[in-house]
Amino acid sequence: MPAGGWHQALRDLTRGHGTLLCIDETHTHVVGPGGATAMWGLSPDAVTIGKAVAGGLPMGAYGVSAELGEELDAGPEPRTGADAHALDDDMLTRLIRIWLANRGIWEALPGAGPTVPVPATSTDVSRYVEAYSDLLAVLR
């Protein structure tokens, strides 16, 4: 069990750094109505629940805070796959892939966003973050 004050310290840190706090209730939602989030009086920005909401079938559910919901409602929502594809920036995707490749990093899923392979070491992650940060600084 987390030590007293741990969750509040985490929430304070995420708010202080402008980071979303997301809680995975896949296994903890069974403690009662509202899951561990309600039991501990937590205030995450998003909560996820996995397969258990569908009797073991591959399905999930999520909920978000009112503030995050308002922000999500503000961007244009693609209604079809073609709409989503039209939002792609092919030139930016190619630039990212070439930028990273020139720094010894292979982006296996171009356009999927920053991804690091599962067997990556902390050094690998640091190289990736540094290269991606350098690109963002140049693009500003």
List the helices and strands and how they pair.
Elements: H1 6-16, E1 22-24, H2 35-39, E2 46-49, E3 61-64, H3 66-74, H4 81-86, H5 90-101, H6 122-139
Parallel strand pairs: 1-2
Antiparallel strand pairs: 2-3
Element string (H = helix, E = strand): HEHEEHHHH
Task: State the distance separating the first and last CA atoms.
Answer: 43 Å
Q: Kindly state the mean pLDDT as a whole number?
A: 85
Helix percent band: 40-55%
Tell me the number of structural domains. 2
Structure description:
- There is one protein chain.
- The chain has 140 residues and is mainly alpha-helical.
- It folds into two domains: 6-74, no CATH class; 85-139, no CATH class.
- Helix content is 44%, strand content 8%.
- The chain is built from six helices and three strands.
- The chain is extended.
- It starts with 5 loop residues before the first helix and ends with a helix.
Task: Give a short synopsis of this structure.
By secondary structure, this protein is mainly alpha-helical. Helices cover 44% and strands 8% of the residues.
Descriptive keywords:
single chain; 140 residues; mainly alpha; 2 domains; three-stranded mixed β-sheet; 44% helix; extended
